[in-house]
Amino acid sequence: MMRTRLIKAMSTSLLAGSMAFSISAHAAQGLYSASDLMDTDVYDSTGEEIGEVHNILLDDNMSVHSLVIKTGDVLGLGGRDVVAERGSFTLRPEENADQEFDDREYEVHMEATGEEIKSLPEYDESWWNQTSDSLSQAWENTKETSRSAWEDTKQATSSAWQNVKQGAENLSDETEEEVE
Predict the structure, then answer these.
(1) Three-state secondary structure call for residue 81
(2) What are phi and psi of 11, to 5 degrees?
(3) pLDDT per residue over 136-153, tens digit each?
(4) CB under 8 Å to 83, separation ≥6 — which residues?
């Protein structure tokens, strides 16, 4: 009887903990329209306009990997496409913009100065191939690490559960001996 109560109490704690983790893992992060981000003005860290969003690159999880920014063009001619990876920019609603459902306006703000932006990699076939290969290799490494971590977790959980079960049985046996 005591063992049953202990097992129920542990199960309830584990279930409540996993539910709390699940809820926090799916918290809302915001929602943006890719079509509204296209041609959005891009500003450097000093607030100077340096270009506009020319393309949005997604990873296998359909998360933004990077933005392709058209910089240095004059009247739509010339310029250079550079790659700004996620984490090097922020997205903000445009100030004083009408935030209608189908007409949202944004600004992209870089954490780099205009000079630092000039050193960003150019968006070309070489960059694409190198980045694609690098991401594929990272994914393979992640899968292997995850597989190993899952096996370690499964083994540790099984071992911990066996220890709890054995402890509960010992406690039950001791309680029965004291009652007799």
Answers:
(1) strand
(2) -60, -45
(3) 887 777 767 777 777 777
(4) 57, 66, 67, 68, 69, 120, 121, 122, 123, 127
Question: Pick from 82, 65, 30: which is nearest to 139 by CA?
Answer: 65
What would the two tokens of residue 25 be?
Answer: 């893992």
Strand order in the sheet with 89-93: 77-85, 64-74, 49-58, 41-43, 106-110, 89-93
Amino acid at 166: Q
Q: Let me know: does 7 contact 13? Beta carbons within 8 Å.
A: no
Report how far residue 123's alpha carbon sits from residue 67's, in angstroms, rounded to the nearest whole number.
10
* pTM above threshold 0.90: no
Beta strands per DSSP E along the chain:
41-43, 49-58, 64-74, 77-85, 89-93, 106-110
Q: Which residues contact 127 (CB under 8 A, 6 or more apart)?
A: 83, 121
Least Cα distance to 29 among 61, 63, 66 occurs for 63
